[in-house]
Each structure stands twice: as structure tokens, then as C-alpha cells.
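@channel anyone free to eyeball this complex?
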Amino acid sequence: MAFEKVRDAMLATDSELVVKEINAELAKGADPKAIFDVLTDAMGEIGDLFSEMKMFLPEVMLATEAMNEAFAILGAEMQKQDQAIENLGTVVIGTVKGDVHTVGKDMVTGTLNTAGFKVFDIGIDSSPQDFVEIAEREGADIIGLSALMTATMPSQKDVIEFLESKGIREKYKVLVGGGVVTQEWADEIGADGYSKDAVGAVDVAKRLVGR
Amino acid sequence: MRGKIFTYWNRSESGPIMTEKDFDLKVYWPAVKKVVKKYNIEYNPDEVVPQSVDQINDIYKAARELFLEVGVFNVTTGRRITWTEKELDDTMKKFPSEMTVGEGRDACHFDHRVLNDPRPANCLGRVLGPQDPALLDRVFYAYASEHRIDHCCFQGIIPYINGAKVRPWSPHEISAELKRVSEMDHARRRAGRPGMSDWSSAPVSLQAAMAAMNSDSGMRKGDVRHIYIMPHLKTSYEQFTRTMATFAFGHHQWGIGQAYVGGLSGSPNMAAVVSCAELFAYCMLYNPSALGLWTADGMYFATTSRTALWVCFHAGAAWVNNTNTFSLDGAPYGVVASGPCTETYFWEHAAAAIGDAVTGMNSGGGTGWQSALTMGATPIGARFASEVCDAVCEAQIGWKEANRLVNYCLDKYMDRMDAHTLHEGGKRFDECYDVETCEPTQEYLDLYNKVKNELREQGLKNLG
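replying in thread with the prediction:
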């Protein structure tokens, strides 16, 4: 298998080793895009293992860090060679205002990252302005809104209304989820997508970006 | 005050400083992996109920080492609070082996339980998830009048009040909390149990919680409020402030080990160690009057999956066999995935109660639909869990037979849990209870009796 050491380093979620192996391959004149593709496939494997609860969130977080470090090196090389850098899309995700629950949002962040999305996790208790500022800055395709409690579900609606008030609702697909959230609620507030769990969120996000 | 919690809180200002991410990935996670490897703690999916005392003792040792190495991260100050072995041992030696919550003849007494304890266990009822405000008193009354329930989280969420949605930190949140406490107090009085303890943690804001504490709304000194250790091994000044508020008004505090299998907790064997370590955190930081284990799957919210039950039973047994604290509330900690008025609702409760019984924990239940859908709380789940738990305790069936029975129960629903569809189906409280009498409908009772009969056929002959 090509770049097996790079792949193995990624599956070991060892960012230092990933960087070392990438640099070794580049020094030998390897195609950065080919290395990037191997890493993307390895992230997909990690995502599958995560969905099957054979790998766990800390490992996904470490793998994401390793991928980011790899991307910093490979992205620069690919730009030099006029190679296109592709991901499935950019997602800004967070737990909405008033809600400090983090686990569900973290799990979705993990599955989206490993599926090939570029994910910006803005944390918990996030205001509509927080979501919109980061989405605008990063050129996001999707805004992901997590709410675990009945009391904080209206904060998902706030984000959609804030987007409308700024005249930028059509720029983003809004994906909602969380323990108490249902498809009916998503329809009621005009969200573009809903997922009950972290695995399903990947399929919905892919559909939203037409992939 | 037991222990030196204020001294320990002050370490939030002087302990090692770091980012939360560094705590998760560079301190906590390597330490979890290290202790699990050191003690060779392995997950065997076929042995949901522990089969080895050595293994549960190793889980306890690993948890103790994890706690001492990692400590607790205060997210407010970005610092770790750590303890010496002597400090931990001194607190655990003096930690109470019994506790009473509630008041008068309705008080609920927790004493230390042992593995395979033959005595009947306490039963926790939980009203969780959104409730129709017009029917809240009916749901609360149904729980308060359920004689098997000893203590109860009357925690139904009021989604709207006074024409407004109830949002955190809004004035409506205070109104909703005052209404909730008032309805709860009336329900327990009408049920003839005015001193029954309420364990709610409904409001998000401390202000709303304090409004009910500091008023004549109906809250009593014997009531208990939730203080959090956040996943994993984390706290904040917000939690210390909550603790101070409960101290100031003379209420009790409850806390739970909250493992999310697959999430930051990692694999089931890791999650068992983490859950146990979190119980140390409660003892060292919050002076709790009640402890429990609330283990859930990270990918599909369920406290009764094979992995979640494995974690709960192993962590619980580890704690019970190695400490002398008052007893823990065990799985499903009040919530199951199936909707009310389904057969699987009872199988989930049975699986949890059987394991609780032989690992020395208390039983409980009630809420279905993953505590997500409106009016999904029915007290018959708690009744059923309590009956099964007490029958198992009395029959002294041992770990091997308990494991066989738990696996029998799991076979009834794990395929749908794996497919993430177990929450589908079921009926609201007002569709499966008579809202006047607050008794379950015949259809619901038929399902309850069907599962009971099958458990008797499986050997639990003393199940009444």
C-alpha cells in the first residue's frame, strides 16, 4: 500500500509521527495530493471505527489535530503545484445560547471531521452572533446547531431568524440536532436538516452540500 | 461539613494551569489509557454483570489512581485541583455510610449496601423530559402516589408559561421553577407523602433554582439538588456556587458518574474506571448526600444498552465493594429508550434492575423516549424496576444467573437499539394513564404482566 507509514501514523493518531512520515515522503519527491488522499481515507476509517465505538472521541480529536498539522504541510505543497484542495464542505457547529451540554455536539464534530468536512467547533452557550461571525469568516456551507434541552430549543430558531434578519439565510444550510430536537421542530423553525444522532448527521450534511 | 472542600476549592486558583483541550488530550486521556492497561481491565460483552471480584477491585484501584493523577479540572480558572493520597483516604474513611433525605415518616434512608445484598433496595422515580403544563400535576401525582418510589426527581420540564417559552436566564424560568415546585409539593401532599424528597435539577440558571429555595413555594429542607461533575473530571465555579447555595438554604446535593461510552469516556472498560473516579470527585468537592451512576451510550442516547449497563454494573460493584459509602442509585437512572406502553420499556427496566440488585445498588426508572419527547414519564417503570430488583435480592441468584437474565432481557431490544430505532412507538402519559385516577390503563398493565410472567418463567419465581 502506498504511504503505509503515513496511514499507520494517522490511525495511531500520532500527529508528530504523521508529520515526520509526510516530510520523509515529500523529501523523496512524493505527490502531496496522493499523500493527502491517503490521509483522507485513513480519517474515513477512523470515522467508521468511531461510529462502531471501536475508536473514541479523544482519539478522533487527536486524529483531527494530526490531520490539521498534515494539512498545513501538504496544503502549502499542493498550492505550489496548483493542485486543488478539496473537502466535503465547511461546517460551523456549536451548542446554542443557554445550553452548556457538549457531548452530543462533540460526537457530531467527530463524525463530520472524519467524514471529510472542515469543522469549526465554536463551543457551548453560543449566541446567534457567534455562529454567524465564524460562518462568515470561514465561508461555511453548513451551520450546525445543537440543543439538549427543551428550554434551549428556541435558541436554534434564534439563529435562523438572525440569519434572516441579516439577509444571509440562503447562504447557509442549517442543520439541527440534540436530545429533545425532532424533525417536526426542524420543520417548524425552517431548518434545512435534522439528525437524531452523530452517525446520521454525516448523511444529512452530505445531502445538504449535494455530495 | 465533611472533608475540607473549601480548601480544595481554593486550589482552583493555584493548581497547574492549562487549556481544557490539553487537559482532555494530554492529561486525562493518557492517564485513562495507562491505568486501564496497568490493571488489564477488559470489556467482555457477554459478561454484562461482573463475574470476577478481582476485576471490580482492579477497576476501583485504577479509578483511584486515575483520580489522584488527574484530579479535577476547573474550567473557570483553567487549573487542575489535585489531592494527595492521604487527603483522599482521610475523606473516604470519614465519608458517611448512611444518609437520610426527605423529611419525617416520608424520609428515605440510604445505608451501605453490599454485593448480592439480600435486603430490598430503594427506588428512584424520575419525571424527565418536556411536560404539558396543564397535566403536570397529574404526572407528579402519579409518581408521588406510586408506593414503590422512595425518592423522586420531579423534574418535568415546563416548556412555556404565561404565554412565553421558558428559556434559561429569562424571568419565565423563575416562574416555571416556582410552578414546578408548587405542583410537586401539592402532588406529594395529596399523595399523603409531604416529606418525600424531590431531586430535581430542572432550571438551568442558579437564580431560578434559588428562587424556589428562598421562598415558600414548597421546597423543603429534605429536598436534594444536582451538582455536576462535567464530562470528564471537570468542574467550574458555577458548580461550587450551586453547592454553596444548597448549603446556604440547608438542602442536600446529589451527583452522578456520567460516562458517555464512545465519547470522552472511551471504551466500556475505560468508562467504568472514569465513572468510579468521578464518584471520588463528588466526595472530595461537593459533600453529597446522594450518589449514583448514569452511564449512557454516546452514539445513541441510552442508559440500558449492553455497553452502558456493563459500565454501570462494573463501576457500581467496584465502588460498593471497596468503599463504605451510602448506597448508589444504579441503572437506568430513571430513563430508558423505549416509549411508555411498549413491551421493551419493561425489558429495559428489567435488565437494569437485575444488575443493580446483584451489584449492591438501588433501582429506579420511569421515563421513556430517551427523556426527549413530551409526556414520556410514567411511574410504572419505577414500580416494575423496584419489584424486579427486590425479587432478585431476595432470591439471591448470584452473578452468573443475573448475567444470564440480563442477557435474556438485552436480546429483547438490542437489535432495535443498534439500529437506533428503539425510541420509536409508545404512548404519552395521558394516552396510557387515566388522568383522573393517575393509574395505568389495562393495555399498559397487560404489557407489565406479560413481561413479569416471562421473567417468572425464566426462573425469577418470587417476582410478585
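from a first look: Residues 171-190 of chain B form the longest helix (20 residues).
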